[in-house]
Amino acid sequence: MKEIFYLVQKVHISEKASLLGEKQNQYVFRVHPEANKIELKNAIERLFKKHVLAIRTMQYAGKKKRERRADFGRRAHWKKAIISLAPGDKIDLT
Length: 94
Description:
CATH superfamily: RRM (RNA recognition motif) domain
CATH class: Alpha Beta
Strand order of the largest sheet: 1-2-6-3
Shape: elongated
């Protein structure tokens, strides 16, 4: 089994993520691009001791970046996961 902190990298904070947390009991995390839903469910349940109902994942391509020359570089690709918790469960992200 992979390490928990290898799979779940950090909390993704945005306006949409905060609305999901308040209204639908869903939390958004930035996760490792190779992590699958089963590994993520086990990692979240072990890390926060909460029951996970569903997970949705999205892949994002890194943006192109140019630094004062003709050739382009690229930021790293990343993956986002939206975790739905059981009713009554909350994660304190502060």
